[in-house]
Design goal:
single chain, mainly alpha, 2 domains, two-stranded antiparallel ribbon, 4 helices, 8% strand
């Protein structure tokens, strides 16, 4: 086994010595090839991956909704889609208000979810935090 390995190393060494002038050119060509792959192939792949992730998030959302409906359960009400967040003060004002499910009850807050699944947070109502009725 060691004998085969030594022969392999000697063959590689002989190749390197006999092709010494070609090695810098080969190294240069490998660097150029890597740069071209990085410049032209990877950006397209990254965009394709991001698009696939968006489609997967959408599929998961629709599959979840379908499962909830089959089970006879109610999904949390979706108040708005595609809304911009606004300022912190505006978000806190949106958190206060009546529940969509029971208009006699103040809501605890409001949940914001990014459609592609990137970010989720909840703005909690000040009235709820202070225990005001």
């Amino acid at each position: 086994m060691a004998d085969r390995f030594m022969r392999f190393l000697l063959a590689r060494l002989r190749f390197a010595v006999t092709n010494m002038p070609a090695l810098p050119m080969l190294a240069f060509l490998l660097v150029v090839a890597a740069a071209l792959v990085h410049l032209f192939l990877l950006p397209g792949r990254e965009a394709a991956i991001e698009e696939s992730e968006r489609r997967l998030a959408s599929l998961e959302r629709s599959a979840r909704r379908a499962l909830i409906e089959r089970m006879g359960l109610n999904h949390v009400p979706v108040i708005n889609t595609g809304a911009s967040l606004g300022t912190v003060e505006e978000i806190i004002l949106q958190a206060d208000g009546k529940s969509v499910l029971n208009s006699k009850q103040d809501r605890e807050g409001i949940v914001f979810k990014q459609v592609d699944g990137g970010m989720t947070f909840k703005a909690i109502s000040n009235k709820y935090l202070l225990g005001e009725k």
